Amino acid sequence: MSAITSSTLTSTPAHRVARYGYVPFMLIGLNGTAIALTASGAPKLWLLPILGVAIATSFLVERIIPYDRGWNHDRADTTRDRIHVAVNETLILASVAAIPLLAAIVPTPQLWPHNWPLLLQVLAAILIADLGITVAHLASHKIGVLWRFHAVHHSITRFYGLNGLMKHPLHQTVEMAFGVAPLILIGLPVDVASVLALAVAIQLLLQHSNADYRIGPAKYVLALNEGHRFHHLKWAGVGDVNFGLFTLLWDHLMGTYSYDQTRRFDSTQLGMAAKPDYPSSYLQQIIYPFTRSGGCTPTSTPTAPTNETQTSGPNPTSKHRL
Fold it and tell me: Which of 100, 143, 148, 252 is most buried per CB count within 10 Å?
């Protein structure tokens, strides 16, 4: 375990503001600004500076209140992660831009509540997308061909903001399809889709953040970093918990929720136990899932040490967890 964590740092006003103000600023402040600008008819390009503020704030707060100071240092992975972010964020923006074209090609029943305030429309889109993405995420831990591509994301051994979009682009596409396709089929407006795309990016920054922030009882409902670290435990089955992107509601309903407030995490507990030497360069990670060795080995899947048990929720074995 890292010898230096945020709990050892001197508490100053800056630390307290970051610890308790970071999440409200990101979730309410930046998403709220995006909703207000969109509702006012402002050009959607204004959402890009908001994303820039979110990324800059993420890096700043991770240095003010790091959960593990060692996770703030490059491990020859920063450039790779930036490429993943650029590619996958481009995919998200392209999917938003394609919505009018898809609507013209595939006529859909106009079931979307266009008369609702934009805030309520965005919240509805988040809940529906969250269910679809959660299902896709769960399936990716159970179905071998999906796990091949999702394993790229689980190869990380440090938690910081950019890890959220450290995904194989094919798997990113699958998750987007599960989350957004149902919305498009009921007439999702482009304005709502644009704000949803920003909300996804902000959520991923928070969910994988190295910041030791506090959200009180909301940690049992919102899918943020304190709960998501359990999902990245490296042993088969033990990490098959807390699949939600925005919320943990679906995990509670599916019985896949897990949390232990006494648990501390370090790099030795993250990654994939059976493949500690998973390819680390961007090109290798793009190609590896298509190779024979990029598959699963269900007959020799390592499990957690006897003291690595979950405190709530199931402890399923997953033959596709490497």
Answer: 148
